[in-house]
What does this fold into?
Amino acid sequence: MSVTYAGTAILNPGTDGGDTPFIETGYASVAFILICSALVWIMTPGLGLFYSGMSRTKNALSLIMVTMLAMSIITIQWVLFGFSLSFSETGGRFIGDFHMAGFRNLGMSSLPMTAPQIPGILFALYQMQFATITSALIFGSVAERIRLMPAMLFIFLWSTIVYNPVAYWTWSKNGWIKSLSCLDTLTSAAPCGIGGYDFAGGGPVHIASGFSGLAYCIMVGKRHRTEEPFKAHNMTNVFLGLALLWYGWYGFNAGSALAATPRAAMAGVVTTVAAASGSLSWVAYDYVRHKKLSGMGYCAGAVAGLVGITPAAGYVAPWAAIVIGAVTAVCCNIACRIKTMAGFDDSLDTWGVHGVGGYVGGILTGVFAEQWIGELDGSVIAGGWIDGNWRQVGYQLAGSTSIAAWSFFLSLILLFFIDKIPGMHVRPKDDEHNEGNDLSEMGEVAYEIVTVTHHSGHHDAAALLKRAEKPERVTSVTHVANTIT
It folds into this structure.
């Protein structure tokens, strides 16, 4: 069998022997990253379902809304200047410039020092999905007490002042974390590139969102205690949200290889292995304490494992992924209990799972990274502690701590000034808080409340279901109940 190559066209008679053969002119890696972009995109609505199910009924819809709003706002910010600030190869040591603002100078050409495997426009699309879900993650810390307008202003500014610089430090050609061992080469034509490892966003995505969420929940304050317990109202949505997140994480981690290579396949393998390990470890840890197999614990543990493997995905072997998933899940479990003792209300544990999980995963990357994993796509890396490169743990610690501190303190400052703008107070008023975000912020609800008794006939029940488009404002929204008395 002979294969004919004509420029970029491929003609294989064995599989393309028709009278008028088609000519393959595409590229496998372009198709691969397009698919991965779609996979990462679906993680944001998946996150909305995940958060919605974990909340009380009266806040379920607003949590889906806030994640989708974040997606739209960051998409526009990314096109205008966010991508250029994060990945410009002509920027300085701290942040990029406006060379690619408005997606100018993007097309067939690649970013040779950052993503040489694919066209620049495709890399911009792929990284856009990272920026959108990172901003949405923050709101888990302040679930059930979010004012949407101040939150959206915060997200736009936060992405510009916090996320864009941190992404630049970590992934860009001139990023100082990426070349931590040789900071004096940052302004040269070819920085050494020997520094912190972060394959898919343990720092820019998880540490940044987690510690920013911590700042947000401290600034907003605690939820009001009422007779209604703070517990998940819909575990089905929680499991559905987890499924979409886990599914999308293949695109998140495997796609970060930026090419259809064996290293991408390995990143996909360790992703699902760490999630499985994390889910089992969290459930087992809770079972020892409470003698129950918790569905919530399973979901939280799987996410913790996925978070922990994110920085390590293209650096570690499958056996190490088991360790990383288990250790990260247990550390996050403990962190989620610390919030009660520390006195802050991290509602859905964004800090406890993403902030702490990203930090632990970053350190463990420095321990378990191996040279042969990098060689799967021709990369040369020094490996981690198990390869004798103990300095890598120091690089990981320095990078993770810097991102955590930057994200926390800059978020506090941003929220402080936004709160001073007339009409932009970040915490709802007491009556709005008690009413729930769905009605107070949107005037809509996720569930219509219908109570049917044996006195109500079939037609009466049907009439009750025909509610006005705008529901009545009530002081609380309880679970949907069909009560037969």
The radius of gyration is 24 Å. The CA atoms of residues 315 and 333 lie 25 Å apart. The longest strand covers residues 4-6.
